[in-house]
């Protein structure tokens, strides 16, 4: 590109092209959602099976999930500060997501703490599902990604329904479904779309 | 009556830089160069013109002993860009 005069139509076309280029920086490849979603789904499924087989204590798999999540969080923090991988372009949505993720994880910690200090897990897990829905809606809206926006409302529906079940096994079914609908499916769709965009 | 199109923005590379920066919080020189397919020398000149007009801020620092230039659009630049687009649309709607 050079410094040259352009006519009005060329100007408008150029503006559109550059704005689309900037928009690509805001696209998410969905891999984080896929990983998080599959972990949640797997732990829900293993817990459900464990409730009938009684291999381990009830929250055995959730304890390991919590430990793994803390390790992943630590790894992300260390990777960010130690290797200082600086993005060449910063977006407003990128900043928003950083803050959103911090808030999300802190709130999850609050709910988990509550479940360990008196709140019944059968009430705590629907709260977690409700929080997932919130995160999914904000992400979907900021990225203008319809599958996530739809998924958020379905996730909230599942979370609300989970309040009325009468067994922890059923809570795990709803939680697993919420992970599937809210993270796994939109994550895979986002991944496919991201790949197409970057071909 | 039509307003004249801002001569600072009515230039291919400068308009490309501003259009890119309007959608981003900030961007490095190397990123802008890659996305606009400009040469380093020409891009430096155009960025300097935009900086002198007050449309962008340019921050220079050293990272691992390498110079790093980061550009960010200013509120004045956002206003100038919005006015430019509005005037552009007026021209185009009359031409139709």
Could you explain the architecture of this structure?
Chain A has one domain (27-84, 100-197). Chain A has helices at 8-24, 31-53, 60-83, 92-116, 121-142, 146-162, 168-197; one strand spanning 89-90. Chain A has seven helices and one strand, in the order H-H-H-E-H-H-H-H. Chain A starts with 7 loop residues before the first helix and ends with a helix. In chain A, helix 2 packs antiparallel against helix 7 and helix 5 runs antiparallel to helix 6 (146-162). Chain A is an all-alpha fold. The mean pLDDT of chain A is 89. In chain A, 79% of the residues lie in helices and 1% in strands. By secondary structure, chain B is of the alpha+beta class. Chain B has a single domain, classed as Arc Repressor Mutant, subunit A (Orthogonal Bundle), CATH 1.10.10. Chain B has four helices and three strands. Chain B has a three-stranded antiparallel sheet with strand order 1-3-2. The longest helix of chain B is centred in the last third of the chain and has 21 residues, at 75-95. The chains are: A mainly alpha (199), B alpha+beta (96).
Beta-strand portion of chain B reads: 15-25%
Q: Please work out how many helical segments of chain B DSSP would assign.
A: 4
Helical content band of chain A: over 70%
Sheet having the most strands of chain B: 3 strands, antiparallel
* pLDDT < 50 stretches of chain A: none
How much helix, percentage-wise, in residues of chain B?
55-70%
CATH topology of chain B: Arc Repressor Mutant, subunit A
Total strand segments of chain A: 1
Instruction: Compute the number of structural domains of chain B.
Output: 1
Largest interface: A-B, 28 and 34 residues
Gyration radius of chain A, in Å = 20 Å
Bulk shape of chain A: elongated
Global outline of chain B: elongated
Number of strands of chain B: 3
| Average pLDDT of chain A | 89
Instruction: Give the tally of structural domains of chain A.
Output: 1
Measure the end-to-end span of chain A.
22 Å
- Total helix count of chain A? 7
Poorly predicted sequence stretches spanning 5 or more consecutive residues of chain B: none
């Amino acid at each position: 590109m050079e410094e040259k005069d352009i006519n009005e139509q060329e100007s408008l076309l150029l503006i559109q092209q550059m704005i689309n280029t900037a928009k690509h920086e805001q696209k998410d490849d969905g891999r984080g959602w896929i990983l998080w979603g599959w972990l949640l789904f797997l732990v829900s499924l293993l817990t459900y099976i464990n409730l009938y087989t009684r291999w381990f204590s009830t929250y055995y798999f959730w304890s390991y999930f919590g430990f793994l999540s803390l390790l992943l969080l630590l790894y992300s923090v260390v990777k960010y500060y130690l290797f200082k991988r600086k993005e060449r372009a910063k977006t407003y949505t990128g900043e928003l997501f950083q803050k959103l993720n911090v808030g999300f994880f802190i709130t999850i910690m609050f709910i988990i703490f509550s479940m360990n200090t008196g709140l019944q897990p059968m009430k705590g897990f629907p709260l977690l599902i409700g929080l997932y829905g919130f995160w999914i809606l904000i992400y979907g809206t900021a990225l203008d990604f319809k599958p996530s926006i739809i998924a958020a409302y379905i996730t909230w529906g599942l979370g609300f329904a989970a309040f009325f079940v009468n067994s922890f096994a059923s809570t795990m079914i709803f939680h697993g479904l919420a992970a599937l609908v809210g993270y796994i499916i939109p994550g895979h769709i986002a991944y496919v779309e991201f790949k197409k965009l970057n071909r | 009556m039509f307003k004249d199109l801002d001569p600072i923005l009515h230039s291919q590379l400068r308009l490309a830089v501003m259009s890119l920066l309007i959608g981003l919080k900030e961007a490095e020189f190397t990123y802008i160069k890659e996305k606009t397919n400009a040469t380093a020398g020409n891009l430096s000149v155009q960025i300097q013109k935009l900086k002198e007009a007050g449309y962008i801020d340019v921050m220079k620092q050293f990272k691992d002993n390498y110079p790093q230039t980061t550009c960010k659009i200013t509120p004045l630049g956002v206003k100038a860009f919005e006015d430019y687009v509005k005037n552009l649309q007026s021209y185009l709607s009359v031409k139709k």
